[in-house]
Amino acid sequence: MKKILLGLVVASFSASVMAAELVTECQDYFKEADAALEASLDTIKAQGLDPETVKAQYEASKTQFTALSADQQKSVCKQALDALEQSKKAQAAAAQ
């Protein structure tokens, strides 16, 4: 499950973006994704990945969202947030 979470985080987004450039849904997603990334750093290391590289890739992907229209941002970030929440639930269930 941690691999899925990591995959969602890394594959979905990167690069720092000013909050004013993102719709609320994206701000909410990135708040959750930032926390998930920080919580996954030990797993990232255990998988033999460089945490700084993963963080840089994640930050770089955020920039892509500023190129999207507000409607596109809402749609994409809503889906990404839903997927992240599902991943968290699955991970919590697996831990029990």
Report on the structure:
Residues 1-19 form the signal peptide. It holds the Pfam family DUF5339. Keywords: Signal. The model is unreliable at 13-19 (pLDDT under 50). The chain contains five helices and no strands. The two termini are 13 Å apart. The longest helix is centred in the C-terminal third of the chain and has 26 residues, at 70-95. By secondary structure, the chain is mainly alpha-helical. The protein has helices at 2-12, 24-39, 41-46, 51-66, 70-95.
The largest sheet is:
none
Strand content: under 5%
Shape: flat
Note the total helix count.
5
- Poorly predicted runs of 5 or more residues: 13-19
The radius of gyration is 13 Å
**What order do the SSEs take from the amino end to the carboxyl end, as H and E?**
HHHHH
**How confident overall, as mean pLDDT?**
82
Question: How far apart are the first and last residues' alpha carbons, in Å?
Answer: 13 Å
Instruction: Please bin the fraction of helical residues.
Output: over 70%
Q: In a nutshell, what does this entry contain?
A:
By secondary structure, the protein is mostly helical. Helix content is 78%, strand content 0%. The model is unreliable at 13-19 (pLDDT under 50).
Provide the descriptors you would attach to this structure in a database record.
Uncharacterised_HI0310; flat; signal; 96 residues
